[in-house]
Amino acid sequence: MQVVKGMVQVGGSTYRVVRFERGHYKVVRILDDTQVGTFKLRPQFEATSGADPTLLIQIARAAIQGGKTSWVGRLSMR
Q1: pLDDT value of residue 3
Q2: 26 - beta bridge partners?
Q3: Which of 2, 7, 8, 25 is the most buried if burial means most Cβ atoms within 10 Å?
Q4: How far is CA 28 from the centre of its chain?
Q5: pLDDT band at 74 (very low <50, low <70, confident <90, very high)
Q6: d(CA 14, CA 8)
Q7: pLDDT for the residue 4
Q8: Confidence of residue 13 (pLDDT cuts 50, 70, 90)
Q9: How far is CA 24 from CA 11, 12, 61, in A?
Q10: Half-sphere exposure of 11 (CA within 13 A, CB side)
Q11: How far is Cα 31 from Cα 40, in angstroms, rounded to an integer?
């Protein structure tokens, strides 16, 4: 089951963060409804797909800080 966790703004673009399984999220750019990539937060952050891991890190960080994910803990991202 997919659950929309919210939206975050990074670098002037807005992204929708969708949880598709526990600890795994996909990111969709709102402007053109294009999937940017996916990331997981368990056991630690990992960009699992997508062209720009740096962008996914920024989006994940904004989602965590904005309470858009159900992850709680230390922010240890590469």
Answers
A1: 85
A2: 18, 38
A3: 25
A4: 9
A5: low
A6: 6
A7: 86
A8: very high
A9: 22, 24, 14
A10: 10
A11: 23
Match 């230390």 to its residue by tokens: 74
Contact between 49 and 55 under an 8 Å Cβ cutoff? The reply is no
How many Å apart are CA 36 and CA 43, to the nearest integer? Answer: 22
Give tens-digit pLDDT for 16-36.
Answer: 999 998 889 999 999 999 999
**Nearest one of 6, 19, 21, 22 to 62, comparing CA atoms:** 6
Give the residue carrying structure tokens 């965590």. 64
The answer to whether the CB of 69 falls within 8 A of the CB of 41 is: yes
For residue 25, what are its two tokens?
């999220």
Position 38 pLDDT exceeds 90: yes
Question: In 10 A of CB 21, how many CB atoms?
Answer: 10
Q: Which residue has the tokens 């891991």?
A: 53
Domain ranges across the chain: 3-65
